[in-house]
Amino acid sequence: MKDEFKRFGLEKMGLTIIILETLGALGLLVGLKFNFILMISSLGLALLMFAGLIVRIKIKDSIWVSLPAFSYMVLNAFIFWKSINSSI
């Protein structure tokens, strides 16, 4: 994983990104009980995956390699959208 962060030019941010991803995943689990936490976690992960997708595009990775970041971004955006609609 360290090699990937070096390839992306994000070696100084690696630990921060790992912590944010872990907190987001825990937030999705806790969010099954508390909708507000689900909204925050899914939005945060969607934005994080959007940033990851931008980085992949910037370093000219193939579409195939960028597909997981895109898929997780769409999935978390969908979770966010559904959690917003269920709280209204």
UniProtKB/TrEMBL annotation:
GO terms for cellular component: membrane. It is a multi-pass membrane protein. InterPro entries: DoxX (IPR032808). Keywords: Membrane, Transmembrane, Transmembrane helix. The keyword Ribonucleoprotein does not apply. The chain crosses the membrane at residues 12-30, 36-55, 62-81. Pfam families: DoxX_2 (PF13564). It comes from the Bacteria. The keyword Protease does not apply. It is found in: Membrane. This is DoxX-like protein.
